[in-house]
């Protein structure tokens, strides 16, 4: 047994959930092992039982709260979205017994040549259902408002530029960032507002035999821009596709919305613009989050995804004149520093 498993065996939270499962729920497990963790303090364990397998969410109170997860699950399930069924819950202790959606995330299956068309067809169909039929649910979600959008983008200069790259913007550069951020916020608020999952991408979509895809990590849902989840899926920070192919999927998705009277914009050009611009906002945020996960939380695994995330921002900025100065700043001063910063981090992590 390796060091990781020895550590888990003496984990107080693990002992708590083992007792909850066996003593309170009367479910005998043959073994419990780590299933996954994410960028938060939540952890997931897979319990092997006589009736099959379950996933147990461990959300330590004071650091995590399972109630948003339960609330959003109860919004998505009636729409026919395949979210994990909740078998049991202990809200006060932060424990949920969930349906096991398997071991195959989209990211793994997308590595197989030709798999992407069917996988994205299913994911886009599910997303259209959320956006077209989730209006009533979205009305009960907090808004993705100016404060939230700005708070997210502010992570980029603080954690990515200053902490990770060691760059201090000049007064003119700070002014450029300020103007760009405000312009992006106005663009985001100008889009039709719908149910937004906020992390609808290949690590949170599971390949399932029925009801594909299984959808995870939806507890932070908000009411926000129609392009947000689409860009999370198609400009995924963990896997990239040629722009023309991405735009083909975007146009097909817009046609699906338009056919059902959904928020499809005046034309394909407007919808593509929505897609690109909210992508810049999202990816600026992600640059900050990935850097913060290393510098604050000691999680180095996301550093390898910074170059693709930065590339997305630069490419979109080139396509939209008001953002070209921001793109020039990032390509001219920032991009060259990233390999060196990642190398330094790798040395410390090793």
- The CATH topology of the largest domain is what? Aminoglycoside 3'-phosphotransferase, Chain: A, domain 2
CATH architecture annotation of the largest domain: Alpha-Beta Complex
Level-1 CATH class name of the largest domain: Alpha Beta
CATH level 4 superfamily of the largest domain: Aminoglycoside phosphotransferase (APH), C-terminal lobe
User: Which sequence of SSEs, written as H and E, runs from N to C?
Assistant: HHEEEHEEHHHHHHEEEEHHHHHH
Number of distinct helices:
15
Overall helicity: 40-55%
Spans of at least 5 consecutive residues whose pLDDT stays below 50 are 1-10
Strand content is: 5-15%
- Summarize the biggest pleated sheet: 5 strands, antiparallel
Radius of gyration, taken over Cα atoms and rounded to an integer in Å: 21 Å
């Amino acid at each position: 047994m390796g060091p990781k498993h020895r550590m888990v065996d003496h984990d107080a939270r693990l002992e708590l959930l083992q007792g909850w499962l066996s003593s309170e729920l009367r479910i005998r497990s043959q073994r419990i092992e780590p299933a996954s963790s994410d960028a938060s303090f939540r952890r997931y364990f897979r319990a092997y039982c006589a009736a099959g397998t379950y996933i147990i969410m461990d959300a330590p109170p004071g650091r995590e709260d399972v109630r948003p997860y339960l609330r959003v699950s109860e919004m998505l399930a009636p729409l026919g979205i395949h979210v994990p069924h909740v078998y049991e819950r202990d809200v006060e202790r932060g424990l949920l017994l969930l349906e096991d959606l398997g071991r195959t995330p989209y990211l793994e299956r997308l590595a197989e040549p030709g798999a992407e068309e069917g996988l994205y067809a299913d994911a886009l169909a599910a997303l259209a259902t959320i956006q077209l039929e989730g209006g009533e649910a979205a009305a009960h979600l907090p808004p993705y408002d100016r404060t939230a959008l700005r708070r997210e983008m502010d992570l980029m200069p603080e954690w990515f530029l200053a902490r990770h790259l060691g760059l201090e913007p000049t007064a003119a550069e700070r002014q450029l960032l300020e103007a760009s951020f405000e312009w992006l916020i106005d663009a985001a608020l100008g889009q039709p507002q719908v149910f937004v999952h906020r992390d609808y991408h290949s690590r949170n979509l599971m390949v399932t035999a029925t009801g594909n895809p299984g959808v995870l990590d939806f507890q932070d849902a908000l009411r926000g821009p129609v392009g947000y989840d689409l860009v999370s899926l198609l400009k995924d920070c963990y896997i990239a596709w040629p722009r023309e192919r991405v735009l083909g999927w975007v146009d097909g998705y817009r046609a699906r919305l338009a056919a059902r009277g959904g928020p499809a914009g005046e034309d394909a050009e407007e919808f593509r613009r929505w897609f690109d611009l909210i992508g810049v906002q999202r990816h600026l945020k992600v640059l900050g989050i990935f850097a913060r996960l290393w510098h604050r939380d000691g999680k180095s695994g996301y550093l390898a995804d910074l170059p693709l995330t930065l590339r997305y921002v630069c490419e979109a900025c080139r396509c939209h004149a008001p953002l070209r100065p921001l793109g020039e700043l990032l390509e001219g001063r920032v991009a060259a520093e990233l390999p060196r910063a990642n190398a330094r981090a790798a040395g410390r992590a090793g």
